[in-house]
Specification:
About 40% of the residues lie in helices and about 20% in strands. It is α/β, with parallel strands linked by helices and about 350 residues long. Strand 1, helix 1 and strand 2 form a beta-alpha-beta unit. It has one domain: Rossmann fold. It is globular. The protein has a seven-stranded parallel β-sheet, with helices on both faces. Strands 8-10-12 form a three-stranded mixed β-sheet. The chain has a two-stranded parallel sheet with strand order 6-14. Bound molecules: nicotinamide-adenine-dinucleotide. The site of nicotinamide-adenine-dinucleotide has 28 residues, from helix 1, strand 5 and strand 8. Pfam families: Epimerase. This is SDR family oxidoreductase. It comes from Streptantibioticus rubrisoli.
Amino acid sequence: MRVLLTGHQGYLGTVMAPVLAAAGHEVVGLDAGLFADCVLGPPPADAPGQRVDLRDVTAEHVAGVDAVIHLAALSNDPLGSLAPELTYDINHHASVRLARLARDAGVRRFLYASTCSVYGAAGGGGLVAEDAPLRPVTPYAESKVRVEDDLHVLADGDFSPVFMRNATAFGYSPRLRADIVLNNLVGHALLTGEVLVLSDGTPWRPLVHAADIARAFTAALTAPREAVHDQAFNIGSEINNVTVAEIAEQVAEAVPGAKVVITAETGADPRSYRVDFSRFRAAIPGFDCEWTVKRGALELADAYRKHGLTREDFEQRFTRLAVLRAASDTGAVDDTLRWRR
Ligand SMILES: NC(=O)c1ccc[n+]([C@@H]2O[C@H](COP(=O)([O-])OP(=O)(O)OC[C@H]3O[C@@H](n4cnc5c(N)ncnc54)[C@H](O)[C@@H]3O)[C@@H](O)[C@H]2O)c1
């Protein structure tokens, strides 16, 4: 398949592009490149792609494409809260426009990177399946719900949107992120000797490795239409339904000498949910996640040591909010996060 991969220069896109290529697909990238330089280790060999803002996409960008994998977004809760209107412009309106253009161009499958954050304040009781009520608690999560709603209306006999509700990602990517929980805790532990938990450690955080997300999308791309058409899927594994305190314990085991410190200073976190991932396994027989939290913590600790993670990189280069603030302060981007040059 010829696959348009938006966000190919992001944390997940940088891992997914080679997995798609290895499965025999032709990958064409599209990304504004907001974090293109946030690299830990050797620079990745990006798929051929264009530096285009999602808000400027035209019919030309989807011409001749068999499928779209849409990852590009302002991609986490703190970013969304920084600029809610921008989050809705980019994550919601521009995504729906892209989907319409894709449908008009005859693209048959559209894999949308949604999130388990759509369940928001679901509570820590039973497992949350795809038909649970959606209770987003941030503009980021709300933007994902709105896209799912609008793409569902576009679904027809020729156009199959698929809503991939990823758990929170972890693991090494050449374009690293330190603002997601496991990557953050491992980095902090290595740099300071403390596994620092600012919440009280009780919230549930379903996790999934970036490489398992890449494998899930690759499988969904070629699955029989009836198995995935217009459906939502939680992407992850029940064994990685863990509390923040449990994640911290795994990190302490992966980083010898590190001590868990739970400060509870951020108070109660309403985002807490345990997730049922069985629908995707039923749709894609044989699929399961390969990575545990423990193995991911060891992988990250090795990568951080090997590539010489510094405190400055950890706090600036690999923290998306800091990267965007710096780009704005230096005038590299305008107040709508468009490049000035
Ligand atoms: N990483 C996670 O834990 C996680 C979990 C659930 C869902 N997701 C979703 O998966 C997708 C990819 O996440 P990620 O972790 O790789 O995020 P990321 O921030 O690393 O990458 C997002 C990419 O989108 C690009 N982008 C942002 N605004 C753009 C615009 N206006 N035009 C063009 N490109 C733009 C950025 O330059 C970046 O390369 C996102 O949609 C995210 O919401 C991620």
